[in-house]
Amino acid sequence: MTLEEYFELSATPFPKAANDKTLLINSAMEKVQGRLRFAIEHDTIAMVVADSGCGKSTALGCFTRSLDAATHNVITTSLTTLAPFSFISHLATTIGLPGHRFKGEAAAALLQHLRGLPKRTVLLIDEGHLLPDSSLEDLRLLTADDMDRRSPFALILVGQPLLRDRIAEPQHYALWQRVGVRVQLRPLCEQEVADFLARQMKAAGCRKKNVFEPGALSEIFRHSRGVPRLVQNIALQAMLTAMEAQKATVDAEAVQGAIVEMDLN
Q: Smallest Cα–Cα separation from 239: which of 189, 18, 262, 188?
């Protein structure tokens, strides 16, 4: 018997990519959406930081989907470990520009192209904490084009907390000054974990009202520390453990068994 059949689900729970049915819109998510929209409207650089698994990609995906495709063009990349010249060339080729032999030529062509577009370009750089120092400086120079009158694109830097620390270093002071919006995603609280799992179960077509017992929810929160990705992984493993033990619901014992199997203690 499959997990879906055992718990009477119509779909596999905890999909890798969040959708409108599984997305939990809490105060933190609303804050990110509002801050990023403010940054674009006021032509300032935005920085979003969060520990791994706290929902950066989910929040940013929600934000980009909310933008009007008729007026905004979104460019997303996470290839931040490229050398500075390769990174600029990567941005240029991503939007369909031909390659250039020199970084200056590639940067000039990129800026000219972006300024000629009828839509506002939003450049979203994930894994920004991995950017080399030279690439961070190049991004600052690109956004400072045209004598600071208006940036050729809206820049959103996303990464782990190390990104915040790196931009605060003296050599990046000029970039730090230009970051007008800073927001940090934090883990879910215990009630939000319960709401998150309830929403996931509903999205999977679960007919049972409470698949996870109160004790199980407390254990999931304690071991995941509210990190959504860990919440999903522990909950799924606990469901498998409960099914193998032929339990009707997921209890604290099933969660504890899952924790041992996942070696999270």
A: 262
Cβ(48)–Cβ(161) under 8 Å?
no
Chain position carrying tokens 């009477």: 8
For 125, other C-beta atoms within 10 Å of its C-beta total 24
| Domains of the chain, earliest start first | 27-185 (3.40.50.300), 188-262 (1.10.8.60)
pLDDT along the chain (265 residues), means of 10: 89 82 82 92 92 88 90 86 77 80 80 86 91 88 68 90 94 92 93 94 87 96 95 95 93 94 76
DSSP string, 203-261: HTT---S-SB-HHHHHHHHHHHTT-HHHHHHHHHHHHHHHHHTT-SSB-HHHHHHHHHH
- Cα 50 vs. chain centroid, distance in angstroms? 8
